Amino acid sequence: MRRTRQRIALLALPALVGSMLVATGPAGADPTGPSVTVGQSHVDDPDAVRLVHIRLTGADMLDRVTAAGFDLEHGLRRVPTGIEGAAVVTAEQLTALKGMGVEVLADGAGFAWADEADGGLGPAGARAVQPQSHEATVRVVRADWFTTKGQGFLYVEARTTEGQQAEPIVGMQLENDSGKGTPFGFPRTMSRFVDSGQYMFHRNLFKLDTRPDTIRVTSSTGGVATGSVSNWLEDAPPPLTANPSYKSDFLDGYRHPQQLYSRAKEIARQYPDIAEIVYLPNQTNGYQRKAQAQIGGTGQAAVVVTSAAWGHEGGNDITVDFVDRPGANLPLAVEVEGKAVRVLLAKDAAGGPASTATEVAEALRTRSQGLIDRAHPYRANEGTGIVAPTAGPVALTDFLDQKRVGAPAGEVPRGPVTIPVLRIGKHRDGKKPGVLIQAQDHAREWVPATTSLESAERLVHNYRSDRETKKIVDNTDVFFILSNNPDGANYSFYNFASQRRNMTNHCPDANADPGRRNSWGVDLNRNYRVGSGHDGYAGASTSCVSDTYQGPEKLSEPESKNIIWLVEKYSNIKFMMSVHSNGGQLFWQPGAYIADGRITTPRPPLGDEAFYWQSAARILSQVKAHRETVVTPENVGGSSDVLYSSAGNVREDLYHTYGIYAFGWEVGGSVYNPATGDWQGGSFQPEWVGNPDLVSGHAETMEYANGIMEMFRVAADWGRDKKDPTSQLVPGAGRYSKPVDVRFETSEPATVYYTTDGSRPTLESPRYAATEFREPGQVFHVTETTTFRWFSVDSAGNIERNYDPTKSDRRNNYRTATIKIVNR
Ligand SMILES: [Zn+2]
Fold first, then answer.
1. Which of 399, 397, 360 minimizes the C-alpha distance to 376?
2. How many whole angstroms from 481 Cα to the centroid of ligand 1?
3. 8-state DSSP, 249
4. Can you tell me the distance from the alpha carbon of 598 to that of 531, in angstroms, rounded to the nearest whole number?
5. For 614, phi and psi rounded to 5 degrees?
6. Helical segments of 538-605, H only
7. Is the peptide bond before 590 cis (omega within 30 degrees of 0)?
8. Of 172, 457, 495, 742, which sees the most CB atoms within 10 A?
């Protein structure tokens, strides 16, 4: 067995929390030669950032803060009082955040659900309890029981149809029994969840030692509903790792992109019968930058100078000198000798310095013989200040030689990168369902890359020895992009640990000075076409220095173009996992909305929604099997339903444009700590070994690789699913003496198309829908005789009874049922 043995010497990033992260040395501190001074380059140190815990009042504030350029992306959680999370900010940004109304939380001061019942709504709520008429106002959305590390939990969502009402706000009370046939008790007030001005549902999560059988929810206006408690991740089959001969645990540390790609190519060489490399056509823009300096003073007198060549292609050899000459009435002049640019500053009639920053910038742009590409005043300044001479030549630099503390040894290859895709499958002929695993769109997320590589290693190492693995490889066509942001990832490993985006600088002059260099780049997971910020969806920024910058246009970046190329070329790709960290969440559509009116991208039909839930439960059960980590149901579903809107994310595009089941995963984070009784969050770069029971890069890699392996099994099962779904109307056809409530049931996740007007059902007919999002199918209240005609389609496209809805099928082989209402 050959394994990549290089270990990256990583300085432990101690949980990031509250620690100062100084990613590179102070800018401009490194003289590059005896005759060259860089000390006059006035560049802010953009690297001193820290991670703080914050609370926002809700999605509106999140949008405003994100649009203003703040990095609030991961580890966010919905709490009853708003949204809590972490921000990576400079001291200056922290002040600005507070100015926008963001609350900064002391460590451990975040929201925690009360484990003790609080008595609920009290006598008024209890008094209002009465039998419901048909027009029920309260529905139980879900009630889930799960255990982790010896502790039971109950999670409940319930909805009142009066939830949007503002005055008075309708309260909800939750009670649970202690097992079948036991009385309800332990009343507690439910927490109202409002997003972007829209009532979502009420919910609670709390510890319980005994599994309840039934819950009861009561509203302050008298609505009441009961619901049975379901198991969440409790009934998982044994994981693949239960087989003693199954090989796992192939990584001994984090991997930078060069290591990831070289191992991918090595796997393809070692296992040519089941693996190959597919090269993505669009090269990245590269781990490279133009060389820069800020010269001539500060404020209005500052000139920002940028080389035409990349730093490593000569830009770093350029020096710029602002020279004071004796005399009066001298014009501004530029001399170039080799890579040395001398600006001879103008003198006025009295012999005083007379060149403004604007004039010097223009002279550099036009008279530097092509060495200087860009020269301009600093930020929004007009450049009216008189430029001061320098003490000597100032060296331009791309700052990429400044390594962060703990950076891996060695140099990073400069220039554009061709991303290899590791394709694994016995039959790579386009006939098996394709699964795209795309890791590390966001550079600082190191665990997604190791999780994906570990999954690839498990496939190739177990193919010959493990029956279940062989079934996966024989029946799927897997595409691994181990890092989809190699430039940014290298920057994160070698220079600035908190880098999220790629390294493409789209900024205009006002934000193009080197003090902004850690704020450039496009958020690759905001650069897609469906639900885009360019079309008004929330959760992406138009600011080139925002950490959620969506790019100058849709698909502006090679990394996102590549994904579209791949799924168009390999149209057998039917499943996708965009792997991120950290947060302990599993998402699908809808993932974006227009804030005004909270209009989401189209919701998946009920059959797809059910298939997503079924797949999620399988995947997360296998995660749990490793060390009892539970991704809680409050963190599973349409991402904009449970967390926030992220405009232009890849999942929306692949699902809506190509019909790919597209998941988003936040691995890591949110592990229950029985010693403290709290849930503990993770970080982007946890110590590799860390605390194996809590926050650990290694443990997260192992447990989430379990989940990715299960996703392959989901795809394999999907590909072999040739069985038609069956469905029924409940209750069925018959004579009823009064109005009756009916609904559809299906034998597996399937979408029902139906008519009640006598026409034959087609794919254009109404789709049986959820009562509301995250709820089961709607209930029809039938008051007069009605004939339902329908058919169902499962997630693999099989149609009930082989009915052909596209053309007039003489057999009319759809289902029918007549509900006959006989008035007495
Ligand atoms: Zn991410």
1. 360
2. 15
3. -
4. 12
5. -60, -45
6. 558-569
7. yes
8. 172
Regions of the chain where pLDDT drops below 50:
1-44, 124-132, 134
* Residue 11 Cα distances to 90, 404, 486, angstroms: 21, 10, 21
Q: Distance, CA 660 to ligand 1 centroid (Å)? A: 20
Q: What share of the chain is helix, strand, coil (3-state, %, to 5)?
A: 25, 30, 50
CA–CA separation, 815 and 465 (whole Å): 46
- Residue in 80, 151, 46, 79 with CA at minimum distance from that of residue 521: 46
Task: Please indicate, yes or no, whether the overall pTM of this predicted structure exceeds 0.70.
Answer: yes
**Å from CA of 647 to ligand 1 middle:** 13
Per-residue confidence (pLDDT) for residue 61, from 0 to 100: 85
Residue 740, number of CB atoms within 10 A of its CB: 16
Please calculate the CA angle 689-692-697 and round it to the nearest 5 degrees.
45
Give CA–CA dist 657/529, Å, rounded: 9
CA distance 549 to 553: 11
CA 443 – ligand 1 centroid, Å: 8
Q: From ligand 1's centre to the CA of 414, what distance in Å? A: 24
Distance CA 684, CA 668 (A): 8
- Nearest alpha carbon to residue 771 among 233, 158, 144: 158
Name 10's Cβ contacts closer than 8 Å, sequence gap at least 6: 253, 254, 406, 408, 685, 688
H helix runs in 247-323, sequence order:
257-270
Integer Cα distance of 783 and 821 in angstroms: 7
Ligand 1 centroid–CA 240 distance in Å is 27
Whole-angstrom distance, CA of residue 251 vs CA of residue 446: 13
CA of 527 to the centre of ligand 1 (A): 13
**DSSP codes of every residue in 610-674:** HHHHHHHHHHHHHHHHHH-----GGGEEEHHHHT---TT-HHHHHHHHH--EEEEEEES--EEET
**Distance in angstroms (rounded) separating the CA atoms of residues 789 and 624:** 42
